[in-house]
Amino acid sequence: MKDKLKEIRERALKEIEESGTAEKLNEVRVAVLGKKGELTAVLKGMKDVDASERPKVGAMVNEAREEIENALNEAKNKIESKVREMKMAKETIDVTLPAIRPLTGHRHPNQIALDEIERIFIGLGYEVVEGPEIEKDYYNFEALNIPADHPAKDEQDTFYITGDILLRTQTSGTQVHEMEKGKLPIRMISPGRVFRSDEVDATHSPSFHQVEGLLIDEKVSFSDLKGTLQEFAKELFGEETRVKFRPHHFPFTEPSAEMDVSCFKCGGEGCRFCKGSGWIEILGCGMVHPHVLEMSGVDHLKYKGFAFGVGLERIALLKYEIDDMRLLYENDSRFLQQF
After folding, report:
1. What's domain 109-336's superfamily in CATH?
2. Can you give the pTM of this predicted structure?
3. Is residue 305 within a helix (H) or strand (E), and if so which, with residue range?
4. Which residues have C-beta within 8 Å of that of residue 33, sequence separation ≥ 6?
């Protein structure tokens, strides 16, 4: 029995020394110390040993087990240390390599244009007011002098949710909400998303953005409107920008006009950008119709007002020379990184 224990111990220590991997070490552990291992078999055979010799043999088995376990643990630590050193050698970081620059977000051209518009009008004493995108027919049409049988209602293909609830076709309804509050005077712009049943092409979309403006006070004239919009155009397109007003018709303003700005590409001489005319149409405007004031609870004999509306996408397309409106909605990072 003693010779067998000595043989098992020496052979186990030799195999541990020669094993170079954790897998081989585990094989040795199982073969010698496992439930069916050699030392376990020796312990099971103790019943055949003379009673006087059993304590000595038991002590020898325990000594052999302890020596083998220590050798296994020491070999395991060496192997793990070696593996860790090899791994660290492979994963060495070269601090002289250039860093990978993370991609950062970009402001959308629409947002850049809106920030610029808001900056200009806040500087003129206006406040920014937001309104609901889901609106009642009354605020979107009737309160703006567009009753059910008005021809202008047919010109705006509307997304109706119910017979009286719709997706707003313009942000002018926000102005009605503000007038109904009765806090005068009013100087506001109302930017926001609007919806119309348009086909998608280079200049149209069923969802786009408008910025409506409203000023109501005593002794307001069309000259005030012209001066305000002229200052806006110069701030937006440059100090040399000229403006001109053409008569037009809007149901909620009287008189009404459309405003053109001199082409900021050719200075008004005529080019491809302005189609040779030297002018670019930019917005619609006019004096608030007295009937609109009265429906919103404003005394039209005491107060006057003017209103204007500009398409945000149109400003972005013109200012940044984008020739297709669809580019604004495709979220192509190659396009957005230019701004």
Report:
1. Bira Bifunctional Protein; Domain 2 (3.30.930.10)
2. 0.67
3. strand 304-311
4. 39, 40, 65, 68, 69
